[in-house]
Write a structure and sequence with these properties.
This protein has 273 residues and is of the alpha/beta class. It has one domain: Rossmann fold (3-Layer(aba) Sandwich). It has 6 helices and 9 strands. Helix 1 packs across helix 2, helix 2 crosses helix 5 and helix 3 packs across helix 6.
């Protein structure tokens, strides 16, 4: 066993001492989107600082705890707070929780994030289902010696986001009168918000929304053979010509406002697993 696989096992063993169920799904909650955890029943919480080899989140809006319990009767594990490359973590640290959730037994990963909109049809508070991504982050989470027990050296990325789950999400949204967009997410390093020229560039190359997370987690999920569903809350629009100063507080407020719709879709998708 390698150092990484030893660390994954140690984290998994610690979590199993507190919760013996096998989760069917993992959930990663983005900035301002932690209230979904209130829908988790019979839950226990474990602080990241108590889990062996787990980093600790340093960003406002990320509470920094693992929540294990039941949603729609299904055992799940949720991350209230994620890790970002811009915080100073390595990509292996950023994606370590995905490895641990796989070790616990999940087969599906749900991801949410707050993102800047670049599609002129978007407005603040809209939901965008991610159908594909463009990776502009400076470090790749699979760089280095491959751990064959975790996944293949060259994982296929032709369908990193499950088409079946996307179709189900649209059916749920239609039944509940929720408007959804579908688009391409551009992953960047951060922590600065983008310049106007950068927004324009990323829209030209095919991006509909941009953020500082998600892509590394999805890459590692694909490497591990997990199916993925990811959704962005559009918390600001970066392509307008008028004055458009963006603050983290505004991002959190927009995310909170859209959260009930995202929670409903995630909850129904989990019920259908």
């Amino acid at each position: 066993m390698s150092e990484l696989t030893d660390q994954i096992k140690a984290a998994g063993d610690y979590i199993r001492k507190h919760w013996q169920e096998t989760p069917v799904a993992g959930v990663i909650l983005g900035s301002g989107l932690g209230n979904l955890t209130k829908e988790i029943e019979r839950s226990i919480e474990i602080s990241y600082r108590d889990i062996p080899h787990f980093p600790e989140s340093t960003v406002e809006g990320h509470s920094g705890k693992l929540i294990l319990g039941y949603m729609q009767g299904k055992p799940i594990v949720a991350m209230a707070g994620r890790f970002h490359y811009y915080e100073g973590f390595s990509m292996k640290q950023v994606t370590f929780p995905v490895r641990v959730m796989k070790e616990l037994g999940i087969h599906t990963l749900f991801i949410s994030n707050a993102a800047g909109g670049m599609n002129p049809q978007f407005k603040v508070g809209d939901l965008m289902v991610i159908k594909d991504h463009i990776n502009l982050q400076p470090e790749h989470p699979l760089r280095g010696r491959n751990e064959d027990t975790l996944g293949p050296r060259f994982p296929d990325m032709s369908e990193p986001y499950s088409k079946a789950l996307i179709q189900s999400a649209y059916q749920i949204a239609t039944a509940n009168n929720i408007a959804l967009h579908t688009g391409v997410y551009v992953g960047v390093q951060g922590p600065t918000f983008e310049t106007r020229a950068e927004y324009k560039y990323m829209h030209i190359i095919g991006g509909d929304a941009v953020g500082m997370s998600t892509v590394p987690e999805v890459i590692v999920a694909a490497h591990a053979g997990l199916q993925v569903f990811a959704m962005s809350v559009i918390t600001d629009i970066g392509i307008r010509e008028e004055e458009n100063v963006i603050t983290h507080q505004e991002v959190l407020e927009a995310a909170h406002a859209a959260e009930p719709k995202l929670t409903l879709i995630f909850s129904e998708l989990i019920r259908q697993l």
